[in-house]
Amino acid sequence: MEELLRMEHITKQFGSVYANRDINLDVRRGEVHTLLGENGAGKSTLMNVLFGLYQPTAGKIYLNGEAVKIASPAEAVKKGIGMVHQHFMLVEAMTVLENIILGDRRTTGLFIDKEARRKEILELAERYGLDVELDKPITEIAVGAQQRVEILKALYRGAELLVLDEPTAALTDIETEGLFAIIEKLKSENKSVIFISHKMREVMKISDRVTVLRAGQTVCTLDCRGTDSCQLANLMIGRDLAPSRYEKIETPGAPVMELSHVSFHKSSKHNGLNDVSLTVGRGEIVGIAGVDGNGQSQLAQIVTGVLTPEEGVVDLKGSTVARFTPNGFILENVSHIPEDRNKMGLIGNMSVQDNLVLKSTEDSRFSDGHGLHLKKKAIHDYAMGMQEKYDIRCESVDQECRNLSGGNQQKVILARELEGDPDLLVAVHPTRGLDIGATRYVHDSMIDARARGCGVLLISADFDEVLEVSDRIIVIFEGQIMGVYSGKNPPIEEIGLAMAGK
Amino acid sequence: MKIRKNLVSILVPLASVLLAFVIGAIIIAALGSNPVSAVGYLFQGAFGKANNIASTLVKATPLIFTGLCACFAYRCGVFNLGGEGQFIMGSIATCWVATTWGIEGPGATLLCLLFGAVAGGLWGAIPGILKITRGLNEMIVSIMLNYVATLFMGLLYTSVLREGNVPQTAAVPDATQLQRIFPDLRVTWGIIIALAVAAVVQYFLFSTSKGFQLRAVGLNMTAAEFNGFSVKKYILYSFIVSGALAGLGGSVELLGTQYRLISGYAVGYGFDGVAMALIAQLNPVATVVVAYFFAVLRTGANTMQAGTGVPTSVIGIIQALVIVFAVAGTALVKLPHIRQWLSNRLEKKGEVK
Amino acid sequence: MDIGELILSTVRMATPILMVALAELYSERAGLVNIGLDGIMAFGALTGFMVSFLSGSPFLGIVAGACGGVLINMIYAYCTISLCAPQIVYGMAINIFAPAVASFIYRVYFGVSSTLAQATLMPTVAIPGLKDIPFLGKLLFDQTPMVYFAYLMVVFTAIFFNRTKAGLNYKSVGEYPKAAETLGINVIRQKYVACIICGALAGIGGAYLTTCYVNTYSDGVVAGRGFIALSAVIFGRWSAGGVLMACLLFGFCDALQLRLQIFNTSTPYQLFQMIPYLFTLAALAVLGIKKSGPASNGKPYMREER
């Protein structure tokens, strides 16, 4: 098969962070080529470079053997590259037909010639088995149909190479089958597809070759027939794991939090929870492992009172929660390290000291008369103490939090959340974006909290992290619990497959 | 770091004022007058005699209130563009109490002030309620309510509360009016009330727990929610308080300066207030300073016109330019690449890693 | 009360609001909420009046009004599109700035105490044939050309947004700029174009006031019509036809209150003046703002955002 696309030594830097580092990828005509990798492995960045949304810091792109420069999405489209983004680029207020012909410059004339276009599009749809209702507004059609519209949009613009970014993420099983049929059809018409996914089963089923990315770099490119899902899972997760530095506890204390049959948006596979039951005991760390976007956010927000479950019961320290409010959980001594520290955890435009006392300004330590007069000196002294204790590196505690590095921001949150001696700590992706030193600090802090009798629910997409600190590991996939494993000598391959939905 | 950051937030308005004055000077020169002497007359008009200073303070009083009104709501992250309507509703309530209840004296004054604040607060609650229950844009709603309030006031002075042939209401009885601080000068206790209220707002925002939480809500609603603050309550309360501040301002204006409702009452005060709060970077004390500065421009303008023949409306342009530059400047320093550049320049030492 | 007079007056009152509401429609369809309409109108009113006064041609006045409007709106455009300044705040700044400039220019040119400068009003042009329709002919087809222009603009706008490719692309910028960008539409340029159209139409709306409605300029001649136009866009659910209906309704209220004022009846005319605002508030409260209108309205568009 002849080569259609070759990306050589692609590097993309954001500030000092490398999102892509020396990545190589080649795609042949008429093949389905999968990009496999964990979240943050650099898949989306690479595709955005290909589609002209980002300019690479270094590296070259060849199309049909010719070096090309892709400066904008419009140019990418002109060169026959079509992209179906994970978040569809569809104008909801418009109909399917209007979305497909939007921005089309192939025909002159002022007016929209709907009938001629309709005929053309229907022919195309027929050819690839893309079943769409052209006159329905986008809001009225299902997600699977919206995806077909996106594919049709790309084909209508003459795409030879189609990039599908996590196309199955939002689809039901039947819709996924339909999509695969379409992909087969595209292949038979000699079109190429770049398929982005981290679901092993699908990858094995649909692709011809697989390129594995890890931490912004190419690991390898494999022929699908010569490999199996276990090998791929290992390559994706990578690294020969060093044994955990921490001692694992096998007999936890009394339950702090119990979830029984909790559901939230049951039918939606990717932002819902379906019949989840789990227990966190005193003095244990329960790690939730799973690929991002399988219901972790919803789980975290339910056990901190931000969301109210639609079904099921949450027991907190032996009594059932009646009303779900963040404040109610805070009063019950539940601490929360939220998944997005800048958006949910910190007030970036406030100082370090203000963020440290964010929840406790009415406390008599920090104010007189339940908050009538803030004791600024006391707050300052307290913050200095915390800066020392948690090793928060900043110019002064008056510095605005948004100017701190990620690790130090996380330490501010840790200091705030752990200082109250919580009964339950919910930590979501607590080390995302941190360097090794800071990561270790966060882990040590969780172990210390455990030693004090705090129950810890660790939700993380970083598999290493879950293995490192968890006493028990629960795997979540599409909002459901796939299995519970001991944290001591965990069956890594089995867990890896469970994470991929097998 | 904090000092440097404050430096930027002071430099933007200062540079805006400077730039506006430079353009103003060019315009004045183009008209054939000497800009330096024009500015001289301007300041002479504002500060030259004790009574000039007094009139400047009188002019500053309502502006301080509407500025604080805008400032308070912004601090909670919501835009109250309805200061004018709330100001007017406060005035209406005051006028109603003062002229139809048949009471007079200091007790009546206090009652009037209270009713003014309550009326403004209630009027301010409407956009707040519509925002938290129906998700409506508070800015559009509060602007619409300005016009409703203005027309309602018109309805009152042309029919219900009209006195005599001229479309205007009866005057506030002498004994209920806010008294002068010095018998010979026009300035009343109104300015003292304004300054006291500004001090209270400053204290509330920066020295109490509720004020702290309100600012937290204003800076990051999601994080505030995650940290246990009831965001919707804060939004509603901030609207009510913000409206009450404007309503109190209307009350003070009616009791201390205007005495009766009449066509053209309070026109533009609301937007002026928003503009001043923005120039003052949402700091209550700075808002007072900016309001005073605007009042200086306005009182000085007449003297300048008499002395040099430069029309007073050039002052309108200078004011407007300050606003245009200050808002653009604030947006400019927030742009990603400008921010990057600034922080490279200002925070070179940065954080010790 | 003469029904014919009332209809005539309704059409006249609705015209400037209609023009400006269309201006806002073009702006919001590209995702730019512009509350500076009052300011743009004021400036358009002044430039329109000045040119009409100096040249003796009200038509040149209208052209000047359009240019003046565009000029002022370019400040808004630069600050909101390129600097990403908050749109509402900047619209407000325009509302303070433009009238101040207009007032200043008028003072400087005509002096403070000179006698009232007056320009000739635009003559009405009867449309042959149509004007002979009994009753309605005299009312609807014996107006100034600007009235016809406004109503033609409604038809044009409806066709543009619903039938043309350019209109479809235009709308996508206000709905989902990122999607538009991936389809090769130049979002930034489209937004500037929107501001030019908006400035021109709002400027014409302002100039209408001083060339077709009254024959002189005075501060406050706009009298909040910009905000009524803003209401008309919301109330008209962001469609040309809806905007026309809303403007006619608001114009009718305006005409009615004027009649009431003239005849000095006991009905308080301010109640009728409140109707546009109350209607809009009620419509917003009942229908909710999110269910209609361009999806990315009011949001700044940063291209390189990661």
Concise account of the structure shown:
The complex is a heterotrimer of chains A (502), B (353) and C (306). With 353 residues, chain B is an all-alpha fold.
Q: Which characteristics define this entry?
A:
heterotrimer, A: 502 residues, alpha/beta, six-stranded mixed sheet, elongated, B: 353 residues, mainly alpha, 14 helices, 77% helix, globular, disordered C terminus
Description:
The complex is a heterotrimer of chains A (502), B (353) and C (306). Chain A has helices spanning 43-50, 73-78, 96-101, 114-128, 143-156, 173-188, 200-206, 229-237, 296-302, 326-331, 341-345, 352-356, 376-389, 406-419, 436-451, 463-469, 492-499, and strands at residues 3-14, 17-28, 32-36, 58-63, 66-68, 81-84, 161-165, 192-197, 209-214, 217-223, 255-264, 273-281, 285-289, 311-316, 319-320, 334-337, 367-368, 373-374, 424-428, 455-460, 472-477, 480-486. Chain A starts with a strand and ends with a helix. Chain A has 502 residues and is α/β, with parallel strands linked by helices. In chain A, strand 4 and strand 5 (66-68) form a beta hairpin. Helix content of chain B is 77%, strand content 0%. The longest helix of chain B is centred in the N-terminal third of the chain and has 29 residues, at 2-30. Chain B is globular, with a radius of gyration of 21 Å. Chain B starts with a helix and ends in a 7-residue tail after the last helix. The relative contact order of chain B is 0.20. Chain C has 306 residues and is mostly helical. Chain C has twelve helices and two strands, in the order H-H-H-H-E-H-E-H-H-H-H-H-H-H. Chain C has a two-stranded antiparallel sheet with strand order 1-2. The longest helix of chain C has 27 residues, at 3-29. Chain C is globular, with a radius of gyration of 19 Å. The N and C termini of chain C lie far apart (63 Å). Chains A and C meet through helix 2 of A and helix 7 and helix 8 of C.
What topology, given as strand order, has the largest sheet of chain C?
1-2
User: How far apart are the first and last residues' alpha carbons of chain C, in Å?
Assistant: 63 Å
Number of strand segments of chain A: 22
What share of the residues of chain A does DSSP label as strand, in percent? 25-35%
Kindly estimate the percentage of residues of chain C that lie in beta strands according to DSSP. under 5%
Overall helicity of chain A: 25-40%
Note the overall shape of chain C.
globular
State Rg of chain A: 25 Å
User: Given the structure, what is the number of helices of chain A?
Assistant: 17
The gross shape of chain A turns out to be: elongated
- Global mean pLDDT of chain A: 87
Order of helices and strands of chain C: HHHHEHEHHHHHHH
Main sheet of chain A: which strands, in order across?
6-7-8-3-9-10
Unreliably modeled segments of chain C: none
- Quickly count the helices of chain C: 12
Output the radius of gyration of chain C.
Answer: 19 Å
Largest interface: B-C, 47 and 46 residues
